Amino acid sequence: xxxLVTNDDGTNSEGLWALAEALTSAGxxxxxxxxxxxxxxxxxxxxxxxxxxxxxxxxVDGVEAHAVEGTPADCVILAHEGLYDEPFDIMxxxxxxxxxxxxxxLLSGTVGAAVHGYLRGVPSxxxxxxxxxxxxxxxxxxxxxxxxxxxxLLASPIxxxxxxxxxxxxxxxxxVEGVEVTVPGSRxxxxxxxxxxxxxxxxxxxxxxRSNSQPKVESGTDVWAVRNNRVSISSISPLLTxxxxxxxxxxxxxxxxxxxxxxxxxx
Amino acid sequence: xxxLVTNDDGTNSEGLWALAEALTSAGxxxxxxxxxxxxxxxxxxxxxxxxxxxxxxxxVDGVEAHAVEGTPADCVILAHEGLYDEPFDIMxxxxxxxxxxxxxxLLSGTVGAAVHGYLRGVPSxxxxxxxxxxxxxxxxxxxxxxxxxxxxLLASPIxxxxxxxxxxxxxxxxxVEGVEVTVPGSRxxxxxxxxxxxxxxxxxxxxxxRSNSQPKVESGTDVWAVRNNRVSISSISPLLTxxxxxxxxxxxxxxxxxxxxxxxxxx
Amino acid sequence: xxxLVTNDDGTNSEGLWALAEALTSAGxxxxxxxxxxxxxxxxxxxxxxxxxxxxxxxxVDGVEAHAVEGTPADCVILAHEGLYDEPFDIMxxxxxxxxxxxxxxLLSGTVGAAVHGYLRGVPSxxxxxxxxxxxxxxxxxxxxxxxxxxxxLLASPIxxxxxxxxxxxxxxxxxVEGVEVTVPGSRxxxxxxxxxxxxxxxxxxxxxxRSNSQPKVESGTDVWAVRNNRVSISSISPLLTxxxxxxxxxxxxxxxxxxxxxxxxxx
Amino acid sequence: xxxLVTNDDGTNSEGLWALAEALTSAGxxxxxxxxxxxxxxxxxxxxxxxxxxxxxxxxVDGVEAHAVEGTPADCVILAHEGLYDEPFDIMxxxxxxxxxxxxxxLLSGTVGAAVHGYLRGVPSxxxxxxxxxxxxxxxxxxxxxxxxxxxxLLASPIxxxxxxxxxxxxxxxxxVEGVEVTVPGSRxxxxxxxxxxxxxxxxxxxxxxRSNSQPKVESGTDVWAVRNNRVSISSISPLLTxxxxxxxxxxxxxxxxxxxxxxxxxx
Lengths: 267, 267, 267, 267
Known about the structure:
The structure is a homotetramer.
Chain A: E1 2-6, H1 14-23, E2 28-34, E3 52-55, E4 64-69, H2 72-81, E5 90-97, H3 109-119, E6 124-129, H4 140-155, E7 163-168, E8 178-182, E9 189-198, E10 201-211, H5 222-227, E11 230-235, H6 246-261
Parallel strand pairs in A: 1-2, 1-5, 2-4, 5-6, 6-7, 8-11
Antiparallel strand pairs in A: 3-4, 7-11, 9-10
């Protein structure tokens, strides 16, 4: 089984390699990821310039890796059309530093990459991990959950085109309180803009940090789940005519739940 | 009424100014658009670099304009947070050279800009015009349709958050055969990748041009409508809990139909 | 006579058009300039990506203009190889906001553009105007001086390959105290670096503003001239075997001096 | 002794690490290099955007390395101002794939980086290796020569600000026929421009490959030396008032000659 792994934080992100390593238990892993941090890049493709790619050393044994001077979407496209001849059985995008919930799925490069796999008929899973900005990010739960999903989907493929958005709470696997099948909540953040004048020039910084004052944190949403230490799994198929049978999603939640419970605290 | 106009083809695109001019009949138009062609940029925001903006001469009287060294999304964000203090009543993104239908709405910078207006609670309308690549693009139908939609929405605002995707067929208003409320069809194009070696270097070109061999052109879809010389109006609200009452959408279709019929062949 | 005008501050810079207008008195002016501010870009060419150019409206009558999504050097190269078939008789780069003196000539995009004209055998003149950062930049002296140099060089071409670096003091033509043939002084500024941490990311800002504590302001240098309200003309031919006869340079200084004296205070 | 190593081909270039390794015999080596290929970038600095840097794994033991999302000049500036507190005793830029001779020194990113070290008073050496495009590049001679120069300059520093441009012929050390102190020859290449139309868009490719039909290959020049299997060492101090005593340059040539003769054919 051929597993493609990408992300939007780039090849210098620890989460990318943690995910790649975790997935080696499920199949043959190939990393094709951006050479730089491309957060906020959505599903953007580079259509107006050339795109360059080169092999990079992988810190994970047995994993072949390329860095792409481009977007996460470019990575998925090149993985399917330029770098490899054989198709992928599944793709994962992550582990993003920070959750991608609610309307953020439209803006996230992590999800944007998964959109491109989905559009090519490859089961695609975006994996993000919420963390307290004052603390540091944990990858362990995400790794365990992703590996469990990979094994399940490769053993029992879902017929319909699949785009899953998985968000981990900021706890280790032993403290995960459950795994929920969710729908995206409302948007938690808007952008704020900082205007700076430097000499005779001026510029703006766009920051994705203005908290929505009335977040609707309804139960059943990804936001609710993550805030309550649950793993959130959403099917975010953007084409409304695609339905994923509810029981298939519940099965996925079950295997992840089981994996957390049986994981101990080993990465 | 304050109307924001942006696009993804940039300030050098004729379609941007044609749309701006057409909308002056509905309110006060402000253009904030990318300084370069940003096709394929989806809803990407520039979060990791500064963004610069400067006033530009507008070829349309009475329209204030800025060019942004950034993405269409950056334009919408800066219009709301940096460049102006007052909110916009409605925003339009377009007129895109080429249709944006089916799954392309996920990749299109034209739609990506409208997503950001929608997320800010501004009624947002993406306007694209299909055209035969062998021929040249017409803006007249798109201008008439957009102006009609603007007048209707400003006179009778729809309560729910609104994100409309409008696609024009490749005909003048007098040849428009109808106006349909549609849903996005399946994807018509995937990307192909061209590998080139130049000296000791190599690169890839990603081209959004590989036609899907089994396009499902079902009636009721945007693709069907445009191929049959109908104007297509889709509500593409990405947050599933948002519903737009069907009769409101039908009302919009009606005003556009009427505008086409009464337009003669004047721009 | 065909005159190419470019700059490194981009098509939105007033100084570019002031220069273009002033040079219409000497010949047929063609503007090919970067679409964005490219300060600090030196003689860099875009070799690893495509370069796009498009016509732009010129605020100066009779001047054809293109904007290039690239560097000042790209502009000079495209002007000679892609956009026009006929060669240019002379080229000007400017009017830069801020002087380019001493070792800054190695870093300046204004001078970098002129280097490329020089390398193609076109007499090339970089024009910069010093100004007090607390005040605003004057273009008048630079316009008068550039036009005088253009008329002189077109009437009496200098045989050897020519690369002139002209710097204006921060005064109007009536207060110019002289015109000197100079050599580049030592470097007046080094860079300082500001380190910023934003959330989980960090970055650096390079600023070209750290004043050299022991500037050698020797008479005969460009720095000395400009500080003493003189126009500075340096031949900065980088290939040591190229000599420009001293009397030719003195002749240029004379025509500029005369132009300042007879200018009144009209632009 | 602290030795800074950078280049313009980026951290993925074999020549960078070959040079770093060779220099470990002369002192403590620190690599700060661009994360991408920046050929043709001249002495350009990033002044209008932030610059990011991150540690990277070094394939050479004992060498600390950073990749910079920026230009070679940015690397030199950050190495001196942001990344390290202690100054460097010497810096090397290379090993460039392809020679940088004649007027190319004005355009080369390899030389551009060295210019910035020179401007900061650090003895700076650009190292390039000519090679037959049909064949593959050799780094051995460049490594031996650079290490010999490093040891000599660190043992017997030259008082004046130093900027050396070293070019290797396309032979192994045993076939080097001599080492010459040279001056830059005339320019061997101009750019050509290829215009391409893709759909409704067009663009240009600038290629640095149009051979000058009348190259003046005078003896005593870098071009002559390299074509005749000699190592070329030029002092290319851009500030004319800086003189490097001829006998110091001849001494450098001698140590390199000796190193080639005694090298055998080991890297």
